[in-house]
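User: I'm writing a short methods note and want a consistent example. For PGF-CTERM sorting domain-containing protein, I'll paste the sequence; you return only the C-alpha cells, no commentary, since I'll be parsing the reply automatically.
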Amino acid sequence: MNARTTLPALVLLSVLVGAVALAGGLAAGTATAQTANATADVSVDDQSGAESVVVASATLPDGGFVVVLNASGGVVGSSEYLEAGSHEDVTVEVSPELARSQVVIGQVYANNGSQTFDAAADPVYTNDNGQPIGDTAYVTVETTETATATATPTATATESADSTTESAASATETTGPGFGAVAALVALAGAALLARR
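Assistant:
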C-alpha cells in the first residue's frame, strides 16, 4: 500500500471507530438518563372499609412510604417502610377509623433515613412541576347495624305497652268497677228488707 491509499483508509477506519464509540456512549447515556428520570407513582381505587385503605400500586424510586390523607389533607395513616421499586396492594391502617364515607388521598413519601414515617421530616415525592404525586379515591364506610338493633326493641316495647293497655281496658270493661259485687250486695240487702216486712 502506498501513502495515497493508506491515508484515506486510516481516516475511514477512524470515522468507523468514532461512530461505534459514539453509538455506545449514546446508548449508555440513555440508560443512565432513564434511571435518573425514574418517577414515583401511586394509584388508589375506590373501595369500602373504615379501618384501612388498600393502595393498588406505588412506585418509590428511592424507597419510602405510602401515606393516606383525608380530604382536608391530614395524615390518617402510613405504610411500613417500603424498599425502592414498585409495590402492589399496600394496606395502610388508618387511625382513627373513618367515621363516614369520604374522599382520601394516597401519596408517596421518600425516607429521611430513619425508616419510620415522619410527616415533618420525610419529603413527599413530587412531579416535574413540584406538585406532590398522589391519587384520590372514594372510600365507602358501611353503616353499622347498631341503629337497626336499637330501633327494633323500642318498637317492641311500644307494642307491648299498647297490648298491656288494651288488656287493662278489656279487664275493666268485662268486670266493671265492682259491678258484680255491688249487685250481689244490693240483692241480699233487698231480700233481707223484704224478709223483715
